[in-house]
Every structure is written in C-alpha cells, then in structure tokens.
Design brief:
- The protein is 27% helix and 21% strand.
- The protein has helices spanning 2-17, 34-43, 63-68, 74-79, 91-104, 117-125, 129-145, 153-163, and strands at 22-26, 54-58, 80-82, 195-201, 204-211, 214-219, 226-227, 238-242, 247-251, 258-260, 263-265, 267-269, 275-278, 281-287, 325-326.
- With 327 residues, the protein is an alpha+beta fold.
- The protein folds into 3 domains: 1-78, no CATH class; 91-170, Helicase, Ruva Protein, domain 3; 195-290, Tumour Suppressor Smad4 (Sandwich), CATH 2.60.200.
- The chain is globular and about 65 Å long.
- The strands form 3 sheets. It has a 6-stranded antiparallel sheet, with no helix packed on it.
Amino acid sequence: KSELLATLNNFLIEQYAAGRRVLLVVDEAQNLSQRVLEEVRLLSGVETTKEKVLRIILAGQPELNAKLDAPELVQLNQRVRLRFHLSALSSEETAEYIRHRLEVAGADAREIFAPDTFGEIYRYTGGVPRLINTLCDTALMSAFTADRDQVSAADVASAVAELQWVEYAARPQPLGTPAAARMRGGREPVVPPLARVLVAENGRTLQELPLLPGRVIVGRTPDNDLQIESRFISRHHCQITTTGQASIIEDLNSTNGLYVRSQRVHRHYLRNGDVVLIGKHELLYLDERTARGHGNMTDTLPGIPALGHDEATLAGEDLPFEIPTIS
C-alpha cells in the first residue's frame, strides 16, 4: 500500500509540474464503506506548498448524502466543498431526454414514441431518469412483442401494468430506498418473481437474482443490478429484460460476449433451463411460470465447459460520472 501511495503521489506531482489537473471520479460512492471513504479523504490531502493537486468527485444515489453526514466521517464532510443533487426532469425535459437517448441509440429522425406517450411517461416517472429508462424499456418490449415499430400510449399503459406502478405523485416514497431492498427502477419485490437467474462458477452456485418485470443490468461493477466480480466480465456486460410473457438477454457490446449452447449470441429469448456462458461464469435461467414443480435447483448447475484462458479476453475498463467535490 505504501508503495502504491508513493507512486500515486509522484504521479500527481509530475502532472502538477506539467500544468495538468488530476480528477478522481468515484461512481456509486454510496456503496463504499466508511473505511474506504476515509482512505479517499486521505488521498485528497496530497498537496504542494501552494495547493492541493488532486480533485475528487463522489457520485452516487441519495443515500450518499446520509453516509457523508455520519458522525464517523466528520473529517471527510469538512473537506466537501460542493454538493450537487440532480433533480427530476420537467415534462418537457422528459420528452427531450427520451428523444436524445433514442437518437444516441441510432433512431435518427424516426418517431419511436408517439407524441401522446410522453405525458403518460412523465405521470408515472415524475421525471426521474432511472424510472424513465425502466418504463421506456418495458414499453418498447410491449411494442416489439406486438410487432409494431412505434410505441403507443397503450404500450405505456401495458408497461405500467407489467411494472405494477402507481402514478409518481401517489408513491409513498420518492427515490432513495436502501439498495438491498430495491430493484433497479425503484420497484420492490412485493410480488412473486416471474423468473430467476442463478450465477455459478465451476458448477457451484454463487448467487441468485429474482426477475420482475423490467430491466436488469449484469456486469462487473457495483452499479449493476447483478454484479459478477471477474476480470472476464465487462463493466456493463449484458441486460435481461422481463415482461409478463418472456425474458430476453442482450449483449451490451461486451468484450467476451454471451454464449448459449456454444454459439455466441447478441440477443436471445430465454427458455426455462437455458444456461448462458458469460466470461468464466454460467447463468442458469429458471422460468417460474413453467418450472413451479422443479423444487430447489440452487445447489448445482449442469456441467458446462468454461472458457479457457486462450478464449477469454480481459474486459476493457470503462469510465464513471459525478456529485460532491472534495478538495
């Protein structure tokens, strides 16, 4: 540790001497322990005789504010120079946000969402980007399964029913419930899951994730719904979208891809018992609607040859994003 800190200190001084500023961005910082946050505070103390040479941005969910206000982190809190909270979007901004996301995804000038859908989307999401993403994903799936190339107000209504949401104004709590009790998109597992995914390595089950209507992101870092800590897993490796009828797994341009029955797939409709190879791990899909009588299947997975070292490539690194600034 002392060698690493010395290396970092030398790097910071070199960058400062060259007239360059160094910024450290820590994403999903609400998941950091108090011990790690204290280490971050110590890093912020690196300085020359004139000024500090490292700027730090902690980005996270609303729980981060409460963590920073903890009595045990008073010294870190004293170092925080600025706190910025991203508030919800307006109705107009919600429509602009959706159009922008579609444009980035390659929609060009096509009107994927009918004009009368944006008001309904805002009514049920309150302009919260994470909820907008979840509702739009589910509405897109509804239109896709009906073989339509435009999302209608009926598709949004169907998505709301799938997610079992109420109007945003009627929600007892806004965003910010504890992560352990929250599925992505702010919905809690108050109904039986439609399916389950078991994660295994070398035939041994490591974790299980229930699937409710909506989207689940699988990847290497803590900001995913399902985290698999492996250097052969990309930061955001794949997503699983579940509706009342089916679940679809889709590769998110990962380094090592997805394999089903030894074939690399980009998008795959999951069937009960499907095993998806992801890096050196296996995902077993259990459809609760068709597998009710199968009992507990969490002890072992079918033996599937994992990727050899010559077949698996180390996943490339990605970059994070923003909130409190520490000086």
